[in-house]
Amino acid sequence: MGTLVISDKSKLWEDIAPILKSSHEVKFDSKSLKSIEHSKKILESALKTNSVIYGVNTGFGKLNNVKIESQDLAKLQLNLIRSHACGLGKPLEDGTVRVIMLLKLMTWSKGHSGVSMELADFLLEMLNNDILPVIPEKGSVGASGDLAPLAHLALSMIGEGKVIIRGEKIDSKKVFNKLGMDPVKLSAKEGISLINGTQVSTAIAVKAINESNNLFYTSDVTAALSVEAGLCSRDIFDPEVHKLKKNEKQLFTALNIYNLLEESEIVNSHINCNKVQDPYSIRCVPHVHGASKTLFQSSAEIVNEEINSVSDNPLIFNNGEIKNSGHFHAENISQAMDILSIAVSEIGAISEKRINYFMNGVEDKIPQFCALNPGLESGFMLAHVTAAALASENKTLSHPASVDSISTSAGMEDFVSMAPWSAKKCLKIIDNVRSILAIELMVAANVNFRFHSNYNSSPHLSNLMELFQEQDVLTKKDVPFHEIIEVVISLIKNEKILQNIKKTLKLK
């Protein structure tokens, strides 16, 4: 278990992605501790002057003109948490919840939130003990912060919600009692600081970035195997050709495929054939993958910016000023995830077309549907249909969520981002594309196994073929292919495919 230090040093999504998989120790550096304490003191001083501070001594949203008496400030925060805990649906995954908690702590560490050190320490202790709030996935429009889901985080902290600990869902108060922890008693501003912010949207986005990063590299390997199995040309991936197109990611894709196919006996076996050009789904892989990778990079940069931002409201400054903001609005995350959805969807769309290429048969060497006994056997006919169904789903899921605003809070929150849905549907697309790539890998690998056994794959792809052999992916007859597809999906998800390739080749 590694240690992650919260400091004023910017962090990238790669720095926090490990906690998606497992718990890591998290701690504040000394500067962060001082920043949290200082902002609390400024808030306390402002309250002594009877200053009107939104959400601290006023109502919320449309009720902001209602003044709250000093003796009711704590009750105001408690009521806020209880009333806003309206999330529905299945709980967010453990890893996503860890990231949410970490991002909330990182926001507080900037010293603009006015929360107590006691509150920060309590959330930190929960995170370090892997006591994870049960946070429903539905209920946020990504505007005044991810209010409903974050209210469930806060609800667990005050002993009125549920948590997951060691895989068991249990009342948070019971857990705290067992561990000798007293539930949090919220003071002025702490309720609104807990629920204001983009942490839920951003955490789901971190998960989407992390998982799609794996897919982009996997897609290059998958395409290379199809080029080889489909008796297509390696020359079209020559980097000298792709240097003429001023897209770095396109060039890198071409290099990956060109290098993966080096010394392939299968490719060399038809080097003097009469076929002049391959279909777009083969020939234009660098162009499509390259464009998608460029969009991925842009999306990742936006997510990195948000990871290191303050998304609270109101904001406390060192000079004693308290200012209102709209930093809780997650339009940037929403657009980034919409962009990523399109980028990943296109990876799946062109993969489906490569699968279809095999379904038509290739010259006189590969029969329709890649069956050894066409007619008696259907081969991969329905495997392709499944890929087509998933690719079609992605076309609908790729419709941008960020353009679909809806007015809430009696019109006060009249333009929202829909960032949580943008990020969640991106994850659905990623799952679909992972399955499409798995089907393509299964088909291409079995074509090599069935029809090209007299020739060797390239050294790099030979290692992959050996992995598939070990995992019983290869077969010469009709079987329940869904079982094989699930195996390949798992190999992609746990990065066994890429680890296998990286033994002999560093992908760009």
Describe the protein's architecture and organization.
The chain is mainly alpha-helical and 508 residues long. The protein is 55% helix and 6% strand. The chain has 20 helices and 9 strands. The strands form 4 sheets. The protein has a 3-stranded antiparallel β-sheet. It has a two-stranded parallel sheet with strand order 1-2. Strands 3-5 form a two-stranded antiparallel sheet. The protein starts with a strand and ends in a 6-residue tail after the last helix. The relative contact order is 0.11. The mean pLDDT is 94.
Question: Structurally, how many domains make up the residues?
Answer: 2
The neighbouring-strand order within the major sheet is: 4-6-7
How many helical stretches? 20
Order of helices and strands: EHEHHEHHEEHEEHHHHHHHHEEHHHHHH
